[in-house]
Amino acid sequence: MSRPIVLATSNPAKRAQLRWLLASLPLDPLEVPALEVAETAADLAGNAAAKAVAYSSGGLAIASDGGLEVPALGERWNPLLTRRQGQAGLRRLASGLEDRRVRWSEAVALAEDGRLLATWTASGTEGELAPEPWPAAGEFWVWDVFYFSELGKVWSQLTEDERVRVDRTWLTLRREVQAFFRAR
Asked: Which of 45, 100, 129, 132 is the residue whose CA sits 20 to 30 A from 78?
């Protein structure tokens, strides 16, 4: 018997990621109208938790919040503000940057009936900023500028097999989320 779970995002790329996390579990992912949830927490886990709780008023919900880490930029780039700083902000800051290494961090949260059940945070997917020119910013623009030199591709071009090989962040989260549900 399948149990409904709300995907707490309106972003199609994030919905696909959350569906991938839940694959093979007896859950029925649902898309609902977007809610305005302030992303003002001190970390990714806090933002993910706020979204999961807000979307869980009628049952189970899963949310995530992620950020691009650019170590060479130090405090000039805040992973918590990746979406708000945007591609244009990153382009401006990274112009002429020699050390173009990047890493992706993501937090996932589960809530039910307005109560937080669990959160996980993972990091470890590493690459570099793609050479410019970058394509126009889309809904999830980071996937078009996050480059895997060993594959010669940006994240959005990866096959499923390639993604499983290099995406340590989401793979770690998938194991954690699936273990949580299997233990229940």
From this structure: 132
The domain total for the chain is 1
Phi/psi at 156 (5° precision): -65, -15
First to last CA, the chain: 14
How many CB atoms are closer than 10 A to CB 184?
7
- Tell me the whole-structure pTM to 2 decimals: 0.94
Using one digit for the tens of pLDDT, what is the confidence trace for 59-96?
999 999 999 999 999 999 999 998 889 999 999 999 99
Cβ contact 174:21 at 8 Å: yes
- Partners of 147 in beta bridges: 128, 154
Tell me the residue type at 49: A
Give the contacts of 136 (CB within 8 A, at least 6 positions apart).
Answer: none
Interatomic CA distance for residues 171 and 86, integer angstroms: 25
The CA distance from 8 to 14, in Å, is 9
Mean pLDDT across the chain, nearest whole number?
95
Report the pLDDT value the prediction gives residue 123, as an integer from 0 to 100.
Answer: 96
DSSP assignment of 126-151 equals: EEEEPPSSPPPP-TTGGGGTEEETTT
> What gap in Å lies between CA 155 and CA 116, rounded to an integer?
31
Q: Which structural domain, as residue segments, surrounds residue 70? A: 3-183
Tokens of 130: 């793609």
Length of the chain: 184
